């Protein structure tokens, strides 16, 4: 069975990375064969991973026997006059905005689909409104580690503030003189992002106020870095305060104070990094793929 995947790619994000993972999971399943449609201009944009996804690509939308949709992908079908009807639809939910009444994302929940959420928190948020079954499959990651900064060297702090550059600059000002700083406030290729994480010993990571998962802290844990990150709801399954990371209040003073304490306490840095790495080891792409393929098989057999 062919399954349509669609992408409107304007720049690399964690959401695109996870959608790419699910396309590859589907391709390996033996249950459905992914076919990809990208909006005009998407394929040529820097950082687009889908040109190497291995799936055949089409340049015009048409009806398919099955669909895999995320975010605003529903609007692409609507614009093309395509209604899935009784065809099976899998809807990947990566954010909490889907549960906000009055938004287009909330409106799509009324459409029948199997919904896969990247965290239990996202699943709990949409379950009261979703037309169809809702399942949580926590995000998995797969990283080839770049060269890592030894943790027994003087602390170096990465401030990952792409989603909140103003606060990132505030934190950097408060930490001047405490340690060497790497301030990141603009998007960069994932390989560069991971390399800059690996070159730090402490990663301060700034999410949106509410996220469905927020992947960077888990990536930092997988690299054995010590993480400072505020609560954003979707990170509660792997960000455990005082165990795998520090989770101060979401303000510059609290975040900088937490990082300052870690600079001065190498033993705590090492203990948090060790626990974080163990947590990240439970979030593998292989585990994510196995959970998805079990659901995919059940869903297609029932369709």
Description:
- β4 (67-70), α2 (73-79) and β5 (89-93) form a beta-alpha-beta unit.
- The protein has helices at 14-27, 73-79, 104-108, 120-126, 165-175, 190-198, 216-222, 252-263, 266-281, 285-302, and strands at 2-7, 33-38, 57-58, 67-70, 89-93, 114-117, 134-136, 156-160, 180-184, 202-205, 226-228.
- α1 (14-27) crosses α10 (285-302), α5 (165-175) packs across α8 and α7 (216-222) packs across α9.
- With 303 residues, the chain is of the alpha/beta class.
- 42% of the residues are buried.
- The chain contains ten helices and eleven strands.
- 35% of the residues lie in helices and 16% in strands.
- It has two domains: 2-139 and 284-302, Rossmann fold (3-Layer(aba) Sandwich), CATH 3.40.50; 156-281, Rossmann fold, CATH 3.40.50.2000.
């Amino acid at each position: 069975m062919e399954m349509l995947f669609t992408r409107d790619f304007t720049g690399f994000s964690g959401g695109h990375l996870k959608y790419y993972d699910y396309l590859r999971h589907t391709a390996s399943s033996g249950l459905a064969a992914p076919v990809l449609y990208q909006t005009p201009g998407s394929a040529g944009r820097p950082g687009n991973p889908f040109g190497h996804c291995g799936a055949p690509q089409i340049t015009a939308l048409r009806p398919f026997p099955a669909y895999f949709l995320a975010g605003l992908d529903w609007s692409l079908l609507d614009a093309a006059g395509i209604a899935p009807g009784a065809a099976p639809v899998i809807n990947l939910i990566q954010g909490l905005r889907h549960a906000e009444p009055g938004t287009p994302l909330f409106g799509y929940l009324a459409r029948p689909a199997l919904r896969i959420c990247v965290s239990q928190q996202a699943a709990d948020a949409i379950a009261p409104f979703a037309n169809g079954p809702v399942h949580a499959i926590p995000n998995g990651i797969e990283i080839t580690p770049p060269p890592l900064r030894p943790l027994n060297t003087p602390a170096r702090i990465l401030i990952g503030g792409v989603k909140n550059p103003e606060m990132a600059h505030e934190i950097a000002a408060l930490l001047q003189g405490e340690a060497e700083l790497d301030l990141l406030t603009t998007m960069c290729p994932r390989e560069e992002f991971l390399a800059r994480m690996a070159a730090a010993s402490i990663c301060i990571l700034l999410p949106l106020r509410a996220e469905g998962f927020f992947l960077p802290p888990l990536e930092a844990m997988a690299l054995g870095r010590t993480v400072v990150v505020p609560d954003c709801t979707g990170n509660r399954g792997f960000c455990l305060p005082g165990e795998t990371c520090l989770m101060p209040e979401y303000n510059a003073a609290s975040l900088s104070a937490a990082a300052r304490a870690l600079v001065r306490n190498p033993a705590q840095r090492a203990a948090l990094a060790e626990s974080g790495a163990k947590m990240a080891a439970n979030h593998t792409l292989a585990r994510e793929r196995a959970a998805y393929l079990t659901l995919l098989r059940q869903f297609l057999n029932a369709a």
